[in-house]
Amino acid sequence: MNDVAPLRQFLAGDESAVAPRSQPIDDEAALLADEALWCSHGDTVHYVDPPKLFERCHGSFMYDAAGRTYLDLQMWYSAVNFGYRNERLNEAVRRQLDVLPQVASQYLHREKIELARTIAVGVQDRFGLKGRVHFNVGGAQAVEDSLKIVRNASGGKSLMFAFEGGYHGRTLGASSITSSYRYRRRYGHFGDRAQFVPFPYCFRCPYGKQRQDCGLYCVDQFTRLFDSEYYGVWDPKVGQAEYAAFYIEPIQGTGGYVVPPPGYFEKLKAVLEARKILLVDDEIQMGFYRAGRLWAIENFNVKPDIIVFGKALTNGLNPLSGLWAREALIDPATFPVGSTHSTFNANPMGTAVGLETLRLCDEKDYETLTFAKGAYFLAGLRELKRKYPEIGDVDGMGLALRMEMCGADGFTPDKALVDRMVDEGMKGDLQVGDRRYGLVLDIGGYYKNVVTLAPSLEITREEIDLAIALLDQVVARALRR
């Protein structure tokens, strides 16, 4: 462990003991020591100690330096929907690299125009709404752009509704509509914080109701805010709300892949339309067939005013995000040139692979495949639930699936159990047949007790069987403590 000695000296106050390395490092311990010294820890989360280093990936699998194989059931937070090193999408990057890899964003290139047209025409076909597409780099930046569009269209209103458990990013504006205070605690507020509304989280209904006979009571509770001016959001004399938009995730992502009950969004949308409040649909995690349809909101029979997207558009190969907005919100007279801008927005590498992603989606029936694979995977999860009372809830739509881990009562949240499951998966010594595997899991949920499962849409039936076998083992090991 000589490579760690400079770290100890540095922590003891001897800064001269450490100097930046200029040569590549082969030793994993030395790499981790350098990470502790030179990397900001503000841009990552280490779920295991020591942090895991991976060296290769392919399909549904990651590989570490020792050659251990890990089945990945989170696929870079649902950014790699179409599998690691997808050859068709990788080839699109190579082609663009040899033709036009860079161009300043005040100039045009074919791929930007074709990608915008493809998305906009697709939305028009699905929802019957004319609109335009605006690009940026990351999901949070696209959310920021949507906030500008909403504020501009509403005459400068800065108040928004959003959901408890909702996640929209960690930039200053996006964190104001993200329900977790810890993302804002050190930095204060940029504008006004959203009013957070309970999500229809039926397993833990905040109103103590049961899904089968609640009558969507949660929507009724939201609607009552508009019954009187003295509830603080509505002026009945002029028919105006103080709030400009409601930011939603059709299926909550970081909140734990919570699926709303049938009819919820239809009833909510009617309330919003009657009060001229926009519906902004954040599809950053659930878009591009994660929930079975190209846009997750298609599962719920409502028309959004704005769609925000990112992640899987480029299969994680290049940072590219964007939004689609109704024509009245984004036409050039309303949202003119220069309203928002980034050097790398609509970059040709990203738009080229994004265009190829949508061509792939158009040629392959991901809707049928994803719903079928999701149903098969969910059936396996239900078998595990019958085996382990600590699995309080399993649910999902398409290949957005959840396992909520609890105490022996099947309800009390047990974050420690999930943490042990993650640790066991990272050991890389789970035995299935004559092979050993690791398992890459992601944690979500209001109590950080939910295993959120977002496997590759290209996952095979055999890999789903492997996933269930590996999950069975990590639960059993974690319960032994």
Description:
This protein is an alpha/beta fold. The chain has 3 domains: 2-36, no CATH class; 61-78 and 366-480, Aspartate Aminotransferase, domain 1, CATH 3.90.1150; 91-363, 3-Layer(aba) Sandwich (Aspartate Aminotransferase, domain 2). Helices cover 34% and strands 17% of the residues. It is built from 14 helices and 18 strands. It has helices spanning 5-11, 28-38, 75-78, 87-97, 110-127, 139-153, 172-175, 217-223, 264-274, 327-330, 348-363, 366-387, 415-426, 461-480; strands at 54-58, 61-64, 69-72, 131-136, 159-163, 195-197, 234-235, 240-241, 243-248, 278-282, 306-309, 321-326, 391-397, 400-405, 430-432, 435-440, 442-444, 450-453. The strands form 4 sheets. Strands 4-12-11-10-9-5-6 form a 7-stranded mixed beta sheet, sandwiched between helices. Helix 9 (264-274) links the parallel strand 9 (243-248) and strand 10 (278-282).
List keywords for this structure.
481 residues, alpha/beta, Aspartate Aminotransferase, domain 1, Aspartate Aminotransferase, domain 2, 3 domains, seven-stranded mixed sheet, five-stranded mixed sheet, 14 helices, 18 strands, globular
Which fold does the CATH topology of the largest domain refer to?
Aspartate Aminotransferase, domain 2
Low-confidence stretches: none
By CATH, the architecture of the largest domain is named 3-Layer(aba) Sandwich
Number of domains: 3
In total, how many beta strands? 18
CATH class identity of the largest domain? Alpha Beta
Strand order of the largest sheet: 4-12-11-10-9-5-6
In which range does the helix fraction lie? 25-40%
Main sheet characteristics: 7 strands, mixed
Distance between the termini: 29 Å
- Taking all Cα atoms into account, the compactness measure Rg is 23 Å
The CATH homologous superfamily of the largest domain is termed Type I PLP-dependent aspartate aminotransferase-like (Major domain)
If helices are DSSP runs of H or I spanning 4 or more residues, what is the number of helices?
A: 14
